[in-house]
Every structure is written in C-alpha cells, then in structure tokens.
Amino acid sequence: MSRREQRVEQRSRQVVTSRRRLWTDAAARWSVTAGGLSIIAGILGILVFIVWEALPLVSGAEVVARRELAIAPAAAAAVADEHRSHVATLAADGHLRVFDLELGATELDRQVVDATTLLAVATAPGQPLLTASTGDGRVLLQPVGWSVRFEENRRRVEASLDPPLVVELDPERRPLGPHAARLDAMGTLTAAAVIEDGSLALVRRDVTRNAFTGSTQESWARHAAPAPAGLSLILLDADQRNLYGATAAGELLWWRLADGAPGRPAVDASEPAAITAATLLIGDRSLVVGRADGSIAVWQVVPQEAGGFRLTRVRRFPSQGAAIRLLAPSTRDKGFLAQDAAGGLGLYHSTSGRTLWRGRAPLAGATALVFAPKADAALVAAAGRIVELELHNPHPEFGLGALFSRVWYEGYPRPAHVWQSSGGTDDFEPKLGLVPLMVGTLKGTFYSLLLAVPLGVLAGLYTAHFMHPALRRIVKPSVELMASLPSVVLGFLAGLWLAPRFGQVMPGLLLMIPVLPALVIAGGFGWKALPRAFRGRLPAGSEVLAYLAIVALGVAASLALGSAFEALAFGGDFQLWLLELTGLRYDQRNAVVVGVAMGFAVVPIIFSISEDAFSNVPQNLVSASLALGANSWQTARRVLVPTASPGIFAAVMIGFGRAVGETMIVLMATGNTPLLDWSPFVGFRTLSANIAVEIPEAPHGGTLYRTLFFSALLLFAFTFAANTVAEVVRQRLRERYAVR
What is the DSSP string of 319-347? Predict the structure, then answer.
C-alpha cells in the first residue's frame, strides 16, 4: 500500500472516530439534560401534589337553602335525624309533630302539653331533647329518637318517641319563668326554672342500676335558691353539674351544682348589653353568648393560678349589627350558627375564631334554629315554614391564627401554642398549633449542628491541611462511611441504648465541657515542648494518636469523677437540682441525646464537603503564605478558611437541610412530645416526625390530613428559602474570595 493510500485510510479513520465521538458526546449531553429535567419535574410534581392536597384548607364555607316545607303552626323547637329526612317539632300549641322532609308530609301529630298552660319551648343544646315549661309549675322533657330500617332497598326512618317526662318544680303550681332541663342515657335528669316568687327551683332525679340484677332505683331531690333579679335565660350542661344564667342587664352567672344544689352564683358584669341568646357548644365547656348589640362572645370556666375557677371571656366575634335571637351549636365540632333580629345569619367556629360565612337567613323572624346531627345541614323554622340549609364546611378548624397564634383552648388557664390532633371524641377540640413543631424542628437542628459543625469543619481543615497524606487516605473514606449508616439504626441505638446511659452519666458529660478542651490545649503545648529531634524520630502523623489518647483519658477521667462532681456541684442529684433551681425537668429522651445521634449522622456530610473545599484551595496560595513566613495555623486561618468559605458554607447548609428533614432519629430518640421548650433536657417533635406519626391515622381528606400536607408545604418552603439564601451567600463569598 502506498503512502498516499495510507494517509487517506488514516484520515478516514479519524473522521469516523470524530463522528463517533460527537455522537457519544451528544448522547451523553442529552442524557444528562434529560436526567436533570426529570429531577426538576419530579420535585415540581411533588410540590404540586402537596399544594393540591393542602389547597382545600383555604376554601370557604357555603350555606345554601335546599328545600322548604310548610307547617302549621310555627315550630318553637326542633330535632332532626342524621339522614336529614325527618324533623320533630314542638310548637306553641303543645303539639309534637314529625315531618317527612322528603315527601313534605306530616307523619305524626300528638299533643303532649295543654296549650293553655304552655309558656316556653326549648331544645337542649346538642341533645335530641325538647323541653317545655308550663303555667302550673311543671317542666316537660320529650326525648326524640330515630329508628332506621331498610325495606325493598329503601331506607325507612321512623320517630321513636317515649312518653314525655313531667317534672313538678313548684308544688304550688305557679307559672314558671326561664327553664332548662337535661336527661342523660342512664335516666338521670335535672330540671331548673325561675318561679313566680323570684326563686330558682331545681329538681334532680338520680337513677342507679344494679349491675347484677339489672334493676334500677330512683331518688328525687328538690332545691331552691334566690334568683338574681332580671334572670331571663338559664342553661344546664350535659353533666348536670353547672348551671348558667343571664340577665337583661347583661350579667352572666354561673352556679356550680354541688350535690345538685345551686350555691351562690359567680357573676360577671363586664358588658352592659343585654344577653339575648346563649348556648353551649359540644362538650359543654364553652358558652356562646349573643347580646342585644349583635356581639357574640365565647366564655369558658377557666382554672386560676391562685386556685379555683372563673367564668372568663376567651373569644369575641365581629358584631352582626342586630340583636342575636337564636344560637345553634354544631353536633360535630366547635362551630355554631347565629341569627339576628334583622335576618342576618352567620356561621362561626370557636377554636379557630373564624367567621366562616355571613349572609341572609332564608326566613326572617325565625323561631327555631338547629343543626342536623352530622353538621352537614341546619333547619330554620318560622312563620309556619321550615327551610333546610345545606352546609359545606369541611375545614372549620383551620386558620392561620389557630396554626401560628396562641389559642385559648378549653380547660387551659391561658392562651397557648399546642399540638394535639385528637381528643378521642368530638367533645374535645383538636389543637393544631404548628409553632411547637416548628420550634422542635429548629431545636433539633440547632443541637445537632452545635455538635456537627465544629467537628465536621475543623476535622475537614485538619485532614486537608495538617494530616499526613498516608493517614488522610484512611481517615477520609472511614468518616464518609459513617454516612451510610441508616438513620433508623442510629435512632434505635440513641433511644434504647444511649438515652438511658446519658441520664446516668450526665454530670460526667457536663464535666467534659471544660476538661476536654483544657487537656487538648495542654497536650498541644506539651507536644510542642518536646525536643525537635525526638519528634523527628516519630512517624509522620503520630501526633494524632497522642491526641486520641489524651481525649480518651479526658473522657474516662470525667466519667470516673462524675459522681464526685455531682455530689459537689449538684447536691448529689443533678436531675433534682435542675428541677428545684431552674424549674426544668430532665426527660430521658431529650435534645442532648438527639444532638449526639443526629450530629453523628450529619458530621460525615459536613466533613466530606469541607475537606474537599479545603483540598481544592490552590497549592500556590498555601506555598506563598508559608514562603512569606506564616506558620501552618496562620496559613489555615488567613488563607485556607477565607478561600474555602463558599464550600464551608455549602457544607453547613447541606448539613442543615439533612438535620431539618431527619425523621427516624427524632422519632425514636426524643419521646416525640410536641412541647414548646428550648431546654436541652426535654424532648420535642419536629414537622417531619409529626407527619410520619400522624399521617397513618389521619382520615383521608379531613382537616388533620390536609394540615399535615400544609406542614409539609411549610417545611418545603422553609428548606427552599434556606437553600436559596445559602446559594446567594455562597456565590457572594465565591466572588469575594475567588482566585484570579
């Protein structure tokens, strides 16, 4: 083959190779681009999903009139069944009527009280119980039940009506004023009313049941007490232990029924407007009061620091502008409806303090207002008609104030930040404050970084600049291997092994804080004091072994002297000393344990990135500094640290992100208690751990479920904002200390 042919063949091979290389480069470029775009799309998809699940929380309530039924006469009190197909009413003519709302027909019409003696009709708050007072000193209680059966694949609802219970409050048969009555499942009942002579009469029937024979025994008791002047309204709670009253002068009264007898009422006269309506919310711990000026407030019996209890206003809602005539409590949550004299209607929620909906009532001059048992509808009765209101109110508990502000919960002495997602029953309000979880997240991050940042950054500096290369090739992979340990293993060890031992050796750990730095500094001076000839005979890097021996000696000495130090400094019991002197208790699973365990997980990340940042500092800068007479420490402080500062900052922020998102270690090593406390000796709960704990038990689509997604969105936004700020700071540090 001639030379010319050889050159042509070589040239053709180069062209083929170049084309193959171009295709390979293009394929690699497109693969990397596609991978990056898919990661961005995946993150955006997760964000969209979180936003989609949390978005319904901000949707408002809707109240729509669904159907109307003509009745005669107007209902003064009503009770509906849970299927919203029937309603039982008690009218001013003394007739109990049951209406089929779907067919628009009257199913039952029964006279239960003589219309000539009937004075007032009411509904017991939150109970299917109709009550009436008469002009001859009696109170009538009519329980209303509903039976459901299915015939030919159709639901049949029928009223289950026992004979009414009649309680004689005034033996002299005088007319009664305002009245209240309650009946529980065991048959215990209490009836109270104001008698014509100005006294407050109370009759109680206690029923005891023999668990072996099933027989019951009744006992009756009657009590009387002077009634305050102008008493216009009274209410009994479901436990029949508290009686509330209101006067036309605006006074709010509270009797504690000790042994069934009303004692001296506690009076609050802080507002002059007359009280025109009042009701108890579900659980009977919150009293909603409406006044003549249209104002609405929530009152609770609040424990006092000095002892005892006081009826206290805990919440106020915007005025409706006209006198509040009717109040109806929800049967599922702490919400209620309020209708005023001008026909305005409002839907409110007590715990969140939100006005959920305001509008016009379908019937002006309403005589009865009641929630359906499932709280998905309400009934308004007036002028011979009943209108069913359909309510769409899926997340009344949610509100920015309820999430991030102090809320005065039932039974609490003052407003507080609390997370308690469930109280077991609807009687207890869910407490969805996110502040304890946010503080717990920052607390866990702070204590873990308090250990991880100094260790990681300084270890990276020493490994990159001071350590012998032969040791560096062993140490760096070994430390990075720590990052492969599963967090569940670290959490398991921290919770079951480390936490109990920390409680036993805590004084020794506290003693290490001054002892170890002092020994290390003394060891450094001692090493420097050794003759140079002697140090030269030792293998390079052997000073590490000396320092490890010093640290081990310091740890052993501190632990050995822990008991003596505890006796000397803390009177022999550190935990008791901590509680008596500072008021802080010591929990076995606390922030110190989490700081050590989570710091162990974060150190490898910070160390690896910091070491790379220090190693990537141009060697000519280091050599120039040393050539100008600076020692190794001065070079590290004046040259290495400023030049590597962008990488150091990136390492700290990545460690920060790792600590913020940690779940299993926090879940297993903190006790998982959502406490608002910065003390290092108590536990906490983070946002991520809270999601892991609560999401399996949260009803799909419920307020708790969506609040957890909202907290995930909050965590996402917090991490995104922190990383954005960190990147901006890193870029500025890079521009400032860039090598040109």
Answer: --SS-EEEEEE-SSSSEEEEEETTSEEEE
Residue 57 is classified by DSSP as G
Q: pLDDT tens-digit profile of 674-686?
A: 888 888 888 889 9
Q: What is the pLDDT of residues 184-210, one digit of tens each?
A: 888 889 999 998 888 888 999 888 887
Contact 50, 716 (CB under 8 A): yes
What is the longest distance spanned by two Cα atoms in the chain?
139
Say if residues 289 and 297 touch (Cβ distance below 8 Å): yes
User: Hey, how many other C-beta atoms are within 10 angstroms of the C-beta on 128?
Assistant: 20
β-pairing verdict for 344-349 and 335-340: antiparallel
Q: Is residue 25 part of a domain?
A: no
Closest CA to 612 of 731, 727, 479: 479
**CA pair distance 346, 356, nearest whole angstrom:** 8
Same domain for 463 and 365, yes or no, is no
**CATH classification at residue 389:** 2.130.10.10
- The H or E element spanning position 356 is strand 354-360
Are both 170 and 223 inside the same structural domain? yes
Angle at 381 (CA atoms; ends 376, 385), nearest 5 degrees: 115
Tokens 């032969």 correspond to 470
Residues ≥6 apart with Cβ < 8 Å to 599: 447, 448, 449, 450, 451, 452, 455
For the entire predicted model, the pTM comes to 0.86
Show which of 399, 429, 450 is a domain's final residue. 399
Give me the domain span that covers residue 350: 64-399
C-alpha distances (whole Å) from 667 to each of 445, 493, 606, 672 are 14, 12, 23, 6
**Assigned domain for 558 exists:** no
Angle of helix 703-736 relative to helix 435-461, nearest 10 degrees? 30
What's the domain count of the chain? 2
Cis omega before residue 73 (within 30°)? yes
